[in-house]
Amino acid sequence: MTERGQAVTLRQVAAHAGVSRQTVSNVINAPQRVDPVTLAKVRSAIEALGYQPSRTARSLATRQAGLIGYCLAGLPGHSLYMDQFLHALTEAVEETGRHMLLFTAPDGDQGLTTYANLIAQRTVDAFILSDTVDEDPRHEWLAGRGVRFASFGRTWPRQGEQPGPWVDVDGFAACAELVTRLHAAGHRRIAFVGWGKRVMMGAGADRLRGWEAGCRRLGLSGRAVYSDSDSMDGAAHAAAALLDDPEPPTAIVAVSDLLAVGVLSEVRRRGLRPGHDVWVTGFDDSLLATSVEGGLTTVRQPTAEIASTLVRLIDNAGPAETGVLLTGRIVARGSAPLDQLQQR
Amino acid sequence: MTERGQAVTLRQVAAHAGVSRQTVSNVINAPQRVDPVTLAKVRSAIEALGYQPSRTARSLATRQAGLIGYCLAGLPGHSLYMDQFLHALTEAVEETGRHMLLFTAPDGDQGLTTYANLIAQRTVDAFILSDTVDEDPRHEWLAGRGVRFASFGRTWPRQGEQPGPWVDVDGFAACAELVTRLHAAGHRRIAFVGWGKRVMMGAGADRLRGWEAGCRRLGLSGRAVYSDSDSMDGAAHAAAALLDDPEPPTAIVAVSDLLAVGVLSEVRRRGLRPGHDVWVTGFDDSLLATSVEGGLTTVRQPTAEIASTLVRLIDNAGPAETGVLLTGRIVARGSAPLDQLQQR
DNA sequence: CTGAAAGCGCTTACAG
DNA sequence: CTGAAAGCGCTTACAG
């Protein structure tokens, strides 16, 4: 209760309970090897004094920071989804008794310096990587020096294997399934709206290929267009090009929720009704998906599972498990009222 | 280069340089009191070995965790803006040589337990609070036990003073100015779309009152409606009510970017042109603002300044500076092409 | 200006 | 089952 109240220490608990400091430590870290009577005595002393071990002291002794590093992506506003992800990740890390250490890093190799410093100072025990891009240099760099990490997203190396453990959501499968189910609902002209070609890589390309494969399998020849920016407006223009076609699509699969909302607005502006005249789907199940009228049909990422798997992979030193591909679940809403029963 | 390469320690640097460990410490922490020759010698040893002091050991000795705690708000997707804020905050904290420690907490008093534990374990030195709500219990609780913190947002206590240091953006002034400038642009019927009454508090109420005051000052009697949910759809319905009025508004001030985008979509659906037939403004300058066609006129929060001020307040033990009210800047875009020259 | 000593608050083998 | 000893890697006064 005093200003910055002198924290209670192990020593005080020991004195209070009339045992050695050693024993107090055992009560906390290895209670099974402590006599029940002693245990109770020490525990009530801990209770009475409100003792909690100092993380710092413990870290020094155990050589474990108890902190997992996570780099916040550059300014522009990384995907809306990352918000949810970060929350789930923080919870998953906390479940293992550790905490998340947030940091920022400049782009380019400078960024690696930040990772290096964090390791050199032993500030973190491991890293979680996200916002993974094609040929991401971080993975190989970290793996090369034996730093523990797990990546949300693949680096899609042109050759060789994915360096280090990763978790990803199968965008290919999800988009292919979207096509299958739209087809089953009667659609024959199913288009795709993707990110601009320059950023059409990694997850974006994976989703595109899934849509393509879905169409091919059914003998459909849909058209794919690309938004010139990662914005609703860019997607609206892309959708306009699609809808101006003499044979316009009756369904549009968008690579993200944000783009899907842009597509929706173009559909509405033309007096067309989403979910009736034109069906529209997104990806991520971000807050936008429940924010539009009727709701946006989208692919929900298994966020909690992604997070807990990442944390598990970090501790799995062995190369037994190198990658985990999770399944996204289609959530049907008004913008594309897919038959629930047909859901596999 | 070895697996989990044994980190270099002070002792090794001392041996390498042929001085005591003490002197190495001085080179790092008080170089001015070290002989230039020794300094150079030690520094080159540090360089050669790639030494960096262990944060944990240093923390134990200095009794400073070097970590600032920040609680991630509950799931639903706190404001889009919080993303930008978190990034800026992390950078500001890093500039003082510390890092951000992220954590989650259940709602209610349970949440306070998490804060208490973090302090008891001396895991963090201080907290940054955000997502502040009316009568937020955290502030008083922390202040009461002498825990350092700074709050983004006021708690709007019904009586008494704001407990502890805070930083906020003057939503009242920004919305009043919006009204003034819309009026100067010729608008006479300026409406407001706010958050549902249940959440109409804190920042939301502040902005509403600013709009009211702006109207009153000019003798305007605008209508305020509330979205029944924090969604584009809710805002679209609210806007519909407004536009169905026999004397519909020619300008609509929305309490957030998300609601503004909902308003925009309703405007467009009616074949009205934003920025021509109806002017629309938002708040936050989130990524949505540049994502809609023509862009959304909005109020930009001085994010970097908010963040750096918070960090400064944390270290200012003295009660000299209790609160800082910053000014939001109106960013004019297509949805409400306010005269740039008129900007004060 | 430099170094020997004590200490930060724990944990980890290791005796007893 | 319990305790005395050593150590984690630094910093902080304090002699010299």
Distance between the termini of chain A: 58 Å
Share in helix of chain A: 40-55%
What class do helices, strands and sheet pairing of chain A give?
A: alpha/beta
Q: Which protein chains are joined by the largest interface, and how many residues does each one contribute?
A: A-B, 64 and 63 residues
As an assembly, this protein is homodimer
* Major beta sheet summary of chain A: 6 strands, parallel
CATH topology of the largest domain in chain A: Rossmann fold
Strand content of chain A: 5-15%
Q: What best-fitting shape of chain A do the alpha-carbon axes yield?
A: elongated
| CATH class group of the largest domain in chain A | Alpha Beta
CATH architecture of the largest domain in chain A: 3-Layer(aba) Sandwich
Order of helices and strands of chain A: HHHHEHEHEHEEHEHEHEHEEHEE
For the largest beta sheet of chain A, what order do the strands appear in spatially?
2-1-3-4-5-11
How much is the radius of gyration of chain A in Å? 26 Å
How much is the average pLDDT of chain A? 90
| Superfamily (CATH H level) name of the largest domain in chain A | Response regulator
What are the segments of chain A in which pLDDT stays under 50 over at least 5 consecutive residues? none
Tally of separate domains of chain A: 3
The helix count of chain A comes to 12
